[in-house]
Amino acid sequence: MDFMGKKLEDIVVTLPFEDGTNVECGVYSYFGINSKKYFALLPLKGEKELDFSKSFMLYEVEEDEENNPIVMYIEDDAEYAVAAQYFSEQLAKK
């Protein structure tokens, strides 16, 4: 699967947290709902191996003018609930 011409397995997202720590994540899934796009992220173990012992994290994603992903926190609880429900249903089908 690709995101704007980039292979998902090649995308690494660094998530900064309020406590000053960062977590390197890989993209497990990319999906769209109602004209918005989302990434399901998992922390990495090693350079590019997804750590399935951790929880999935959902973030909205857009692309910049060079088709690079811009990952954004989902502020709205209702929007997050819709994205989480959709992702859960897709995960159950795998």
Number of domains: 1
Helix content: 10-25%
Structural class: alpha+beta
pLDDT average, as an integer?
91
Cα(first) to Cα(last) distance is: 15 Å
Q: In one word, what is the shape?
A: globular
**Into which percentage range does the β-strand content fall?**
over 45%
SSE order: EEEEEEEEH
Radius of gyration: 13 Å
Q: Report the count of strand segments.
A: 8
User: What about the largest sheet?
Assistant: 6 strands, antiparallel
Low-confidence stretches: none
**Tally of helical runs:** 1
Structure notes:
- By secondary structure, the protein is of the alpha+beta class.
- The protein has one domain.
- Helix content is 18%, strand content 47%.
- The protein contains 1 helix and 8 strands, in the order E-E-E-E-E-E-E-E-H.
- It has one helix at residues 77-93; strands spanning 2-3, 6-7, 12-16, 22-33, 36-45, 49-50, 57-63, 69-72.
- The strands form 2 sheets. Strands 3, 4, 5, 6, 7 and 8 form a 6-stranded antiparallel beta sheet that branches.
- The chain starts with a strand and ends with a helix.
Concise overview:
This protein is α+β, with helices and mostly antiparallel strands and 94 residues long. Helices cover 18% and strands 47% of the residues.
Present the secondary structure layout.
Blueprint: E1 2-3, E2 6-7, E3 12-16, E4 22-33, E5 36-45, E6 49-50, E7 57-63, E8 69-72, H1 77-93
Antiparallel strand pairs: 1-2, 3-4, 4-5, 5-6, 5-7, 7-8
